[in-house]
Write a structure and sequence with these properties.
Two copies of one chain form a homodimer. Chain A is of the alpha+beta class. Chain A has two domains: 136 residues, PurM-like, N-terminal domain (60s Ribosomal Protein L30, Chain: A, 2-Layer Sandwich), CATH 3.30.1330; 156 residues, Alpha-Beta Complex (Phosphoribosyl-aminoimidazole Synthetase, Chain A, domain 2). In chain A, α4 packs across α5. At the A-B interface, β2, β3, α2, β4 and β5 of A face β2, β3, α2, β4 and β5 of B. β3 of chain A pairs antiparallel with β2 of chain B.
């Protein structure tokens, strides 16, 4: 059945669960959306694209694609300490497949409902499956968590466990004929990452620098170090690895996944030791593990040790080109 | 040469001419951009995607693609009466072609410089050439020009001339071996549309409804009529057609291009006759033709006459599916 763009938008993208946000003066249906910030707030925006066959397998379930697309974007707001309010969607699809659209929209709506987001606009075009979301958050002026505030002596933390998503992607690309509980956990971590939005908000008074882990711990920590003009020492035996990950591969391989495999969407942050106890007390209620993995140093560069021995990455994992 | 995403962004998308906007607290290089509205302002956002081979020929010049992509988005802000300030870019490219990127970036920068826009963020991914831009404008609270304010008796105006872009697209798809001056004009109108940003701003106190013409006059006017719950009568002999368009095809064909061929990015707006003289006086300084083409009616539906005779579209031009 041929659908007009208007019908398609109305049918799949204007449900109540996609319209939970505040401050929407005018949403889908005019030349622009009109949005209101409250006095004393700044706007935080981030944009992510996912391409079929590049960022997810071509046979990925539409619902998972929708969920993951929005989760990845929300993770950027989380890393800023911003409160999500609105998003826009550029949907490029090869044809109008109603069951695909229905699933995709359901995946988006799950997260949008949970975080009280409104879909306020976007574009629908025909072409190779490519999805871009921009999220919009609000944050009191001056309270944003940036990458450039780490200072020598700050402790380096990560949330949750790392490497699961990279292992899940490997499973998604080569699915076993029978899924074990371990496989299911890792696939879920790839397709359904948890954006640490509330954690970011709670970190506002404590963290000196924050980033979300989307390129692997080492690559993302390097961004903090470069923007802050600092170095770091990591004790890799502390890097949090999940039981399911350790059940599927040797510890060294799991560690490499954690260090260089991206898209866990956990937070990596630095905190002054004087603020550490208050931070830990405040964040307890989230019941998400927080692990100290190292220390910021004046000396630039990143030095790593594993069980007391100096550690270097295998050369082929050292740098990722576009 | 392989470029990191960081290098690519730095080299092609952080030039001064792409950083002219105000209110940027934090631009490219953190998890989010941080942006400030001024007190009493609302945010207007719009997003557009262009896909190679769908929205422009696969062999289109990169500079033209960049220009047109941003122009189309700015046109949506113009139709809202908003002042452009920031944009984000999702760039999906099959490979890193430096001369293409250089041209594309130059096309963006021309318009960004002219309208004092900053490129504040986005994403760069590998995949089939697909480009999404979101523009962000600001507008004093309550002054946005919407689609839903047209009222019976209002006069319907369009800016510039219509149909040129559709004729230009036909030339772009089947370029003649030798370009005449007429051809060049029409191609320029396709690749380098002029977003009517200043016109939108000047229309704020006068227009009752505004839309930009991106789907053809009739389709876009229908959006105003539907949102305003009104009808219209058009006198098609007044629809402005350019000399170059009329030089390349019979008047009837030119008129059909104007009515149903999209992407002229002119403004179509309605104005109460009591405000008309002031509007015309104020907008004179733009030196852009404004043409009255009809009247809004209580009776819903769109009635058209050409030289006093009732006019209907050929059936195959009546409705466009996605």
């Amino acid at each position: 059945m041929a659908l007009s763009e208007f019908d398609l938008i109305h049918r799949f993208f204007q449900s109540e669960s996609l319209q939970c946000g505040q401050g929407v003066i005018l949403g889908i249906g005019d030349d622009c959306a009109l949005l209101n910030l409250r006095p004393g707030e700044q706007l935080a925006v981030s944009m992510d694209t996912m391409v079929s066959g590049v960022h997810f397998p071509v046979d990925a379930a539409a619902e998972d694609i929708g969920y993951r697309l929005l989760a990845a974007n929300l993770s950027d707001l989380a890393a800023m300490g911003a409160e999500p309010v609105w998003f826009t969607l550029a949907l490029t699809i090869p044809s109008v497949n109603e069951s695909w659209l229905e699933g995709f929209s359901r995946g988006l709506a799950q997260l949008a409902g949970e975080f009280h987001l409104s879909l306020v606009g976007g574009d629908t075009t025909r072409g190779p499956l490519t999805l871009t979301v921009q999220v919009h958050g609000r944050i009191p002026v001056g309270q944003a968590l940036r990458r450039d505030g780490a200072y020598a002596g700050d402790h380096i933390y990560v949330s949750g466990s790392l490497g699961d998503s990279a292992a899940g992607l490997a499973l998604a690309l080569n699915p076993p004929s029978l899924l074990s509980a371990t496989d299911s956990y890792l696939l879920e971590r790839f397709y359904r990452p948890t954006p640490r939005v509330e954690m970011g908000r709670l970190l506002r008074p404590y963290a000196s620098a924050v980033i979300d882990i989307s390129d692997g711990l080492l690559g993302d920590l390097q961004h903090i170090l470069q923007r802050s003009h600092m170095g770091a020492e990591l004790e890799l035996q502390h890097v949090p690895l999940s039981e399911p990950l350790l059940a599927t591969m040797p510890r060294q391989d799991a560690l490499l996944k954690a260090l260089t495999g991206g898209e866990d969407f956990e937070l990596c942050f630095t905190v002054n030791p004087a603020d550490e106890a208050n931070m830990l007390r405040e964040l307890q209620r989230l019941q998400v593990p927080l692990t100290r993995i190292g220390t910021i140093t004046h000396r630039t560069g990143l030095r790593m040790a594993l069980d007391g021995e100096e550690f270097s990455l295998p050369a082929h994992l050292g740098f990722q080109h576009f």
